[in-house]
Amino acid sequence: MEKKKEDYIREYLGSADKLGIKLNPPEEAILKTAEMAWVVDSYEVKPGDEPADEPKKKET
Amino acid sequence: MEPFQLTVTESAEKIRYGQLTPTEIVESLLGRIEELEPKVDAWATIDTRGALKSAKTLTREAADGRLRSPLHGIPVGIKDIFNTKGLKTRMGSPLFSDYVPESDAAVVANLRRAGAIILGKTETTEFAYLDPAPTKNPWNMEYTPGGSSSGSAAAVASRMCPLAFGTQTGGSITRPASFCGIPAMKPTHGLLSTEGIFPQSWSLDHVGFMARSVEDLSTTLQTLTGIEPPKTTRKPKIGLASSYFNEAGTVDITCNYNKSIERLKRSGAQLVEIELPESFRVVHPSHRVIMFAEAAAVHEVMFRKNPSSYRQNIQGEVYSGLLIPSSTYLHAQRIRGKFIREIQATMESIDALLTPATITPPLKGLTSTGDAAFNVPWSFSGFPTVNVPSGLNDEGLPLGIQLVGRPFEEANLLGVALWCEEVLLFNNEAPLR
After folding, report:
1. Average pLDDT over residues B400-427
2. Which of B23, B32, B164, B299 could cross-link to B55 by cystine, CB 3.0-4.6 Å?
3. Does B130 share its domain with B206?
4. What ipTM does this complex have?
């Protein structure tokens, strides 16, 4: 699992080169986002867990 | 009592009975602003001329017995990311330093129609993210007022206006309101339109407001949406989720939370422990992915042209958001759907969920606006929340509780909040030290 996380983060950070933005942004924010993205991608969702809509009013 | 000290409800009553005019209220608040603004820095723009002009019209209408709504003649502060026709709207960014919108945001237009007076624009963090505004906390000027609706919270707390509007994507209404010791409401996602407001993250952004009593919050929401009045609550059934909310906060937060629970219990509240759904553990990462990806989409063109015009935190947000794969973004949205269904089911049997409003008390210094961790789940799910001030820590800084309701059940939530406010009896007069 750890290896997978490292790969994920490496790939995420590697894609920064393709952005073409000349800037040295805060590394901490980028690394934290990469870790969060990995957590999200590692979480299993099942059919029926569709993208969120607005919360619905209860049928009355 | 000076007019600037009056709440929305008190002002409205005096206007209704001809004891006070909108012009007198505006003049009193402008005097208060002149006195305090150099210390507090709550305002990005003060519209003296526009406010006095509106007040004159509304004073005439009131004299003729034509009151537009309970907000007739009530001066309001508006966060500086809401478009206001003819009035600078700077988004807390040098990129918008001269921007003057040609039309009002939908909420601003509705407020004007209801007879509210736009007193000015309140300070925001840069593009409503984390890079702080210059605003100070009226309870102690060495501390942050929180953000991103920093100016709105500080202006209400220091009695420079009785009502102010803000937005919340993570914790940007609840946190500053709690740090400044005032009640605030974030209604269900989408109940108040975000049209004409600069987005932070369009699927998470909420419009909300702050005042000095829960009754004022209720009046404001009823005026803008026509919802029912708060449901009177005798002994509300309140849910607690101690496994997370009683452990993640600092000592003074947890202590105040437990004291508040004890007081509510003694007054008759029925308290039940609820179990947070399993998906709760990925709420914060999913929220960050959605917020950052959407912020990156909003800012990409401007950011590519002017990356160095962005401050440190929002640079990090936009830059790392541009790197998030679309599949990850959509995965986070699916998690959101799952969490909404699960938490809604969990909350079926209670009137409201009770948590501390913030994870820390107001922080010393003006470099950080604090942490939104306790507010994020409700911005993520879109459920309505109310902040109720609940005490002071040893340094004399305000702490609060957050009540969470089921979607579109604001009347019920406000009923519980009114009850809690009566029990907790917080004196919200900031010392301005």
Report:
1. 97
2. B23
3. yes
4. 0.92
